[in-house]
Design goal:
Elements lengths: L2 H8 L1 H12 L7 E5 L5 H8 L3 E6 L10 E5 L12 E7 L9 H12 E10 L9 E2 L6 E2 L10 H6 L4 E9 L8 H9 L28 H18 L8 E8 L4
Parallel strand pairs: 1-2, 1-4, 2-3, 4-5
Antiparallel strand pairs: 5-9, 6-7, 8-9
Helix pairs in contact: 6-7
């Protein structure tokens, strides 16, 4: 596993998130398809619980574990027949898939799942906060490459016809921002964006690099943006960081 991923997963909040997701998988499950497996941290935990795990990502995962089958594939065109797995596990993936591909991905997850789905996404994320600016094309990008923000109703709508078995809210999300702060931060060049992300620019595909030298005017705008956000953040009600769902196929089979 990539060292940066290992360190990230060892953080308490990530352990809580992953532990809750894995804990949603019913004990009677035999086969699991892990969508967006990356370095295999979650796939290994699923295998530790005795499940037969297939780990799928856009690039074939390199997971050195004989218990896990690694497959290259796309969530919008899964290379499996209907109801091929007892459970399909999909966490931290759907927020990266823009429409109309998002609906195709949801249909594919539902198609290949025989009995259950475990879905995890950020909850009501303010995509205006921590945006980045591409140094190549100038496009403003959402944080972490997230192009969707989900509430419970929107997430359930993607899987109409599936029964909700369990719903969990994990963590405490940070306050959002406001239109004035967003405008000022855009003028400042979005210096505080998520430039450590692996995801590239959504417009041109270039790597996102933190801005270097900035003008005095941009620094003034940055400070004003921070103050503008703080002025409204104190009045915002706390919200969870993530929502996790266990869904069951409505009809038997």
């Amino acid at each position: 596993m990539d060292e940066s991923l290992r360190v990230a997963y060892e953080r308490t909040i990530e352990r809580d998130r992953v532990g809750d997701l894995v804990g949603l998988v019913p004990a009677a499950t035999r086969t699991v398809l892990d969508i967006g497996a990356r370095g295999g941290f979650i796939a290994r935990q699923l295998a530790d619980r005795g499940f037969a795990v297939t780990a799928l990502d856009l690039e074939r995962p390199l997971i050195d574990d004989p218990r896990i089958e690694c497959v290259q594939g796309d969530a919008t065109r899964l290379p499996y027949g209907d109801r091929s797995f007892d459970l399909v596990f999909c966490a931290e993936v759907l927020e990266h898939i823009a429409q109309p591909a998002l609906e195709r991905a949801a249909c594919e997850l539902a198609r290949v799942a025989r009995r259950h789905l475990v879905i995890g996404v950020p909850y009501r994320q303010d995509l205006r906060l921590w945006r980045t600016r591409c140094g190549s094309c100038g496009a403003v990008n959402p944080p972490w490459g997230h192009v969707n923000s989900f509430d419970e109703a929107g997430l359930l709508a993607l899987f109409a016809g599936w029964r909700l078995c369990a719903r969990r809210f994990i963590g405490i999300g940070e306050p959002g921002t406001n239109a004035l702060s967003v405008w000022l931060m855009d003028l400042a060049g979005n210096p505080y964006g998520t430039y450590v992300q692996d995801e590239s620019c959504i417009r041109c595909g270039a790597a996102l690099l933190r801005p270097g030298w900035r003008t005095s005017w941009q620094r003034v705008c940055t400070r004003a943006a921070v103050l503008a956000r703080a002025a409204t953040a104190r009045f915002e009600a706390p919200r969870p960081n993530w929502i996790h769902l266990l869904l069951e196929r409505a009809e038997a089979g």
